[in-house]
Each structure stands twice: as C-alpha cells, then as structure tokens.
C-alpha cells in the first residue's frame, strides 16, 4: 500500500526510542505495552492483501522478503525487531502480556480454523519475535527468552500444523519457518522425526511451502556442533533415497523450474550424504543433465546455476573417490551436455564451471581417456581464453593434462607457450601463466622445451624489469627455486647468462635474495627453499668468481624463510559460505571442486633437514671454507638456527 515504506521507517524509529535506557520509565508499564501490542504489533504483523497476493502468485518475492537474512525492511521484520527492542529492559513483563494476546489469538483460531487462520499466523510471528534473544545467519536462534517455552510451543502449535492435512498453506509456511529459525535448539532426536514430515511438504503445490520445506532441510543439515555436522551422514543415510526425488520434483512445478532454494538443498544433501549417494547417483546425474540442457538455452538465475554445478562437483568428489569406476559413468553422462554448452552462445557463463568439473575428473585419472584427448586441441583456441572467467579453470585443466600424461601435448607445445606469453603480460593473470610454465618445466622432458627456455625466461625478466608487482616477484622466486631443483641450479644460471652476460649476479642480489622470505603458499615456499638450497650447495657458480661473497646472504635468506612465519588466515566456514564467496566474481569457484593438494617436490620430505645435509656434503668438498663463510658472514641468531637444523639432521660442517 501507500504506507509500505513509511511504516517500517516509523517502527524502526520507535524501536530506537524504546531501546534507549533513559526512556525506560515511559515504556515499562503494562498500559504502554498493551497499547503497543494493540496499535502497532498485531496490526503490523497481520498479512496485508499485497502479502497474500505475493504468497499466492509471486512466491519468490514473498520468500525473499520473509526469509531469514533478507535485508528488505518489511513491516513484519521491523515489527519483530520492535518486539525485541521492547524486551531489552522489560523481558518478563512484555513476555507475560504478549503471551496472553497469543493465547487469545490461538483460541480464536481453534474456534474456527478455516476462517481464523490469520489469527494463528499473527500468534506464530509474535511467538517467534518473543522467543529469540540472539541469532546468526549460520545457526538461526542462538539465545532464547527464558520466560518463553519454545519447545512447548513447537509441540503444541507447530507440529500439529505440519501433521494436519487441512492446515492453511500460510500456517504450513510459518511452521517450516519456525523450524528453520530454531533449528539449532532442536535436539537430534527431533530431526529424525521431522525430516520425513518436512519432506512431505516438498510435494506441496504452494511455491512458498515447498520452498520453505527445501530451505528447512538444507538448514537442518547445515547445523554443526564444534565444527561437526549434527545430523551427519550416518543419521541421514536412510532419508537420502526418498528425499532426492522429492527435491527434484520441485523443478517440474510451474514457477519453480529454477528454484534456487531447492537446488541449494540438493547440494546440501549431496554434501552431507557423501559416498552414500552412490546408489542414487545415476538418477541424480540424469536429472541434473536434463536441467542443464534446459537452462543452457536461457540461463536466468545465476544462484540456481551455481548450486547446480556445485552439486555435480560434489557428486564427482564424493562418489568417484569412493568408487573410482564411477568416473567413466560421469564422463559418459557429462561430455555430451558439456560439449554442447561450450559451443553455445547463450551460456558463456557456464564455461568456468564446465572446465572446473572437467579438471576435477581428469585429476582422478591415471591415463587420458579418449573424450579428453578429443577436446585438447580446442582448449588452446584463442576464443576460449578471451572469456576472462574461463582462465583459472582452464589453467587447472591444462595442468591436469600435463600431470596425467604430458604426451597429449604432442606438437602443441608452442600453443601452450603462447598462452603463457599472453597470461604473463597481464598483472591480473600472471600467476596463472606461472602455474602453466611450472607444470611444463616439471612434466615435459627438458629436451622437448630446452630450445624455448631462453625465450620464456626472458619474458619473465621483461616483466620484472618493466612492470613487476610483489605477487609476480614472489611467483618468479618460487619458480626459479623449482627450476633449480628440477633441472639443476647451474642449468638455470646458464639460461639466465644466455639471455644477458652477467645477468644472474644482478638477479640473485636484487630479486632472489631480498624476496625469498616473502614467498607465500606452502608448496611455493617449499619449492623456493629446496631450489635455493640446491643453488647454495649444488652449483659450481656459487663457489666461483665473485659469488662466494654473496653466498652467506643467500644462506641467511633461506634461514629467514624457515624462521619468519608466513601470514595465513583460517576460518571455520560452512561450504555454502565458501561457495557463495566463490560466486561473487566472473570466475565462479566451486567449493566442492577444490583442487587436491599436490606436492611437486615430494622427493624432499623435510626442508630444514635437506639444507643441513646439503651443507654437510658441500663442506666435505671444501673443508674449513664453508665453516669460515658461516662464521664470518652469518649473524649469530642465524648461526643458532642453523646449528639446530644440523643437530636435528645429525649433520656436521667440516
């Protein structure tokens, strides 16, 4: 109506007034509380004709306005906050008075349920407003009003509505919302009986009811205690088979063809069910590929599409890890729709998803299967790389090809180097270029790319000289270390000197040594440590000419890398949060398709021990010299750290 914007603003103002301590005396008396209830709370919690219209014919709008975590200021939301504001100083008084109104509204409902359902709707909302003292998006209600019996209300008012065949759809939706809100308060035993009851509402024709039922299942499965899922896969196993077809049936209902809440629930079921999904995987994949073919023609709902691909990635992860033979089934089902989508103009935004799942499948292989061989050449096509969102996933896919079997590259090595050249020129994408060249250097025999080495190292130097960034410098230092370990430090020096005589000394002092300790990422730091140790102890370069003067500085930098802690950030996060964070960019990272940890230097288990043993070997070749260089050139605290490494490794310096 005409006051839709004004009323919430007025109620927000009223809330800010009642929450101020100095206004306590004006609002704590029973008369004020009763006036507020009759003139503000009940009238504003009542559904207006516009709300009912949305409920019946624009369910998505109703759900968005009503769902927890929505940022829309509606009359209902601001009124609920007003009740909480009133309770701030007068919790007991407000609760007692409002409870009497709730009882009266429920009596009216009982006298004629068909006619007076709206009274119960208001009673449910007053009760939800009263009961909550604190809540979070992840857990729902976390702190309750001690004067309100939530479980008593749940048993006497919520459960009967869910069990009733004749209950009004709005009351069904309210009851499901109640469970969503108080999910963390409900005991595990309650979940078991509730899941079946909620699942029956997935069949409901009302958009709001079946959407709330899906959201309810998704939120219950998300509840965690100390980081562990409360209703875990062992509890959930018997319900997987009956629930999934019901969730998929939602997408056949008019208006719900792309219901993101239902798809989110499918994703959650797959996340919690893990390998127990194996027996229904065939039907789930079939349902998903059918939906994919439909939405590819006209993708309208980005969230829906995101959870659709998350579900696929989740199935690949959980089922193929438990049953490696299933990989072939997935490929057979997914290659036709994926090929079709990559050729369509309408769904370019699906590229990043498709490439991530292809990479995820390929990473599980011991050899490259025919479908993957068939698409390799098209991955090098410039048009594919013109879509910025494709780049991270396509690099991951190309790296997977190289790791499984480099021979797939055949005559196409120059094509790969062309991609490296394009990526390294851009500050935003250079780390993808470095990941590609590292995989080439690691997996393809040196004789096949030695002729190009001078050119690609020169490209890196141009970036370092003309337009470097801290990120590029760190990646370069890590790459240099990796190259030194993989193909020998002297061969790296030789390539650098081939670009420009005397270049390596400059590079070592100005780029490598100052940045060794700044390298970030576990694998990158290890590459750097191992490779720089090889440069220090296994290269003829470092013990000849002017280099012995620089030698202690390099050792000091390696010790700094070990002793100065790397900054890391860890959060206990829910898979939906990770998924939603990934979704905010042109490249949509799939949480369920995370790359497996891969260590290209698995031959070195302990880096400090590697340094100690390498120094021990070197000192045998130059007795007394290494000891003197350490004594004269290394600060005392670094010497102390080095002595620790030597004693732990059982090594000595001659």
Can you walk through the features of this model?
Strand 1 and strand 2 form a beta hairpin. The chain has helices at residues 6-18, 24-27, 30-45, 49-57, 59-66, 75-111, 117-131, 150-163, 169-181, 188-200, 207-222, 233-250, 260-273, 281-297, 302-322, 326-342, 351-362, 370-379, 382-386, 391-404, 413-424, 430-443, 446-466, 470-487, 489-499, 503-515, 522-537, 547-563, 575-582, 607-621, 625-633, 636-649, and strands at residues 132-136, 140-144, 224-225, 228-229. The chain is mainly α and 654 residues long. The protein contains 32 helices and four strands. A two-stranded antiparallel sheet has the order 1-2. The chain has a two-stranded antiparallel ribbon with strand order 3-4. Helices cover 69% and strands 2% of the residues. The longest helix is centred in the N-terminal third of the chain and has 37 residues, at 75-111.
**Strand order in space, largest sheet:** 1-2
Name the beta content range. under 5%
Low confidence ranges: none
The first-to-last residue Cα distance is: 89 Å
Helix content: 55-70%
Q: State the helix count.
A: 32
Counting DSSP E segments of at least 2 residues, the number of strands comes to 4
Over the alpha carbons, how many angstroms does the gyration radius reach?
A: 32 Å
Look at the structure and give the mean pLDDT: 90
Instruction: Identify the overall geometry.
Output: elongated
Specify the structural class.
mainly alpha
Largest sheet: 2 strands, antiparallel
List the helices and strands and how they pair.
Elements: H1 6-18, H2 24-27, H3 30-45, H4 49-57, H5 59-66, H6 75-111, H7 117-131, E1 132-136, E2 140-144, H8 150-163, H9 169-181, H10 188-200, H11 207-222, E3 224-225, E4 228-229, H12 233-250, H13 260-273, H14 281-297, H15 302-322, H16 326-342, H17 351-362, H18 370-379, H19 382-386, H20 391-404, H21 413-424, H22 430-443, H23 446-466, H24 470-487, H25 489-499, H26 503-515, H27 522-537, H28 547-563, H29 575-582, H30 607-621, H31 625-633, H32 636-649
Antiparallel strand pairs: 1-2, 3-4
Helix pairs in contact: 1-6, 3-6, 4-5, 5-11, 6-7, 7-9, 8-9, 9-11, 10-11, 10-12, 11-13, 12-13, 13-15, 14-15, 14-16, 15-17, 17-20, 20-22, 21-22, 21-23, 22-24, 23-24, 23-25, 24-25, 24-27, 26-28, 27-28, 27-30, 30-32
């Amino acid at each position: 109506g005409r006051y839709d914007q004004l009323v919430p603003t007025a109620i927000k103002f009223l809330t800010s007034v009642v929450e101020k301590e100095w206004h306590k005396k004006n609002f704590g008396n029973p008369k004020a509380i009763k006036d507020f209830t009759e003139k503000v709370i009940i009238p504003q919690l009542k559904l207006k004709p516009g709300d009912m219209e949305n409920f019946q014919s624009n369910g998505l709008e109703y759900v968005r306005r009503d769902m927890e975590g929505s940022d829309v200021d509606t009359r209902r939301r601001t009124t609920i906050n007003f009740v909480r504001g009133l309770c701030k100083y007068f919790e007991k008084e407000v609760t007692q008075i409002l409870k009497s109104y709730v009882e009266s509204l429920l009596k009216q409902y009982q006298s004629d349920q068909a006619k007076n359902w709206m009274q119960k709707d208001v009673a449910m909302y007053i009760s939800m407003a009263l009961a909550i003292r604190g809540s979070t998006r992840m857990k729902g209600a976390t702190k309750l009003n001690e004067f309100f019996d939530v479980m008593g209300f749940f048993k006497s008012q919520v459960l009967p509505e869910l069990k009733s065949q004749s209950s009004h759809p709005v009351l069904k939706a309210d009851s499901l919302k109640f469970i969503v809100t108080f999910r963390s308060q409900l005991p595990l035993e309650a979940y078991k009986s509730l899941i079946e009851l909620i699942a029956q509402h997935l069949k409901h024709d009302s958009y709001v009811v079946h959407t709330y039922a899906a959201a309810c299942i998704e939120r219950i499965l998300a509840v965690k205690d100390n980081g562990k899922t409360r209703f875990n896969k062992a509890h959930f196993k018997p319900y997987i088979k009956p629930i999934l077809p019901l969730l998929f049936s939602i997408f056949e209902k008019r208006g719900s063809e792309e219901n993101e809440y239902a798809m989110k629930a499918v994703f959650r079921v797959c996340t919690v069910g893990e390998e127990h999904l194996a027996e229904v995987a065939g039907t789930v994949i079939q349902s998903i590929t059918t939906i994919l073919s439909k939405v590819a023609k006209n993708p309208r709902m980005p969230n829906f599409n995101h959870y659709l691909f998350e579900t696929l990635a989740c199935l690949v992860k959980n089922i193929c890890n438990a049953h490696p033979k299933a990989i072939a089934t997935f490929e057979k089902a997914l290659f036709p729709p994926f090929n079709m989508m990559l050729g369509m103009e309408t769904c370019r935004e699906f590229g990043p998803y498709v490439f991530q799942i292809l990479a995820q499948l390929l990473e599980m292989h011991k050899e490259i299967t025919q479908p993957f061989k068939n698409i390799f050449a098209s991955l090098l096509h410039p048009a594919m790389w013109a879509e910025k969102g494709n780049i991270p996933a396509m690099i991951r896919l190309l790296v997977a090809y190289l790791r499984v079997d480099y021979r797939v590259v055949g005559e196409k090595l120059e094509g790969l180097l062309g991609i490296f050249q394009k990526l390294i020129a851009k500050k935003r994408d250079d780390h993808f270029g470095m990941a590609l060249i590292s995989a080439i250097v690691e997996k393809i025999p040196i004789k096949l790319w030695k002729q190009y080495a001078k050119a690609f190292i020169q490209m890196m130097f141009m970036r370092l000289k003309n337009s470097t960034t801290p990120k590029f410098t760190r990646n370069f230092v890590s790459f240099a270390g990796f190259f030194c370990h993989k193909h020998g430090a002297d061969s790296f020096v030789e390539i650098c000197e081939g670009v420009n005589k005397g270049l390596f000394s400059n590079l070592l002092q100005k780029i490598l040594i100052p940045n060794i300790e700044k390298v970030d990422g576990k694998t990158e730091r290890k590459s750097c440590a191992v490779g720089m140790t090889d440069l220090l102890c296994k290269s003829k370069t470092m013990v000849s000419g002017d280099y012995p003067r620089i030698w202690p500085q390099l050792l000091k930098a390696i010790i700094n890398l070990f002793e100065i802690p790397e900054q890391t950030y860890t959060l206990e996060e829910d898979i939906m949060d990770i998924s939603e964070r990934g979704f905010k960019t042109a490249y949509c990272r799939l949480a369920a398709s995370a790359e497996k940890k891969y260590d290209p230097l698995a031959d070195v288990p302990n880096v400090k021990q590697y340094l100690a043993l390498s120094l021990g070997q070197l000192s045998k070749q130059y007795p007394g010299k290494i000891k003197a260089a350490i004594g004269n050139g290394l600060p005392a605290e670094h010497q102390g750290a080095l002595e620790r490494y030597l004693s732990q490794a059982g090594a000595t310096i001659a």
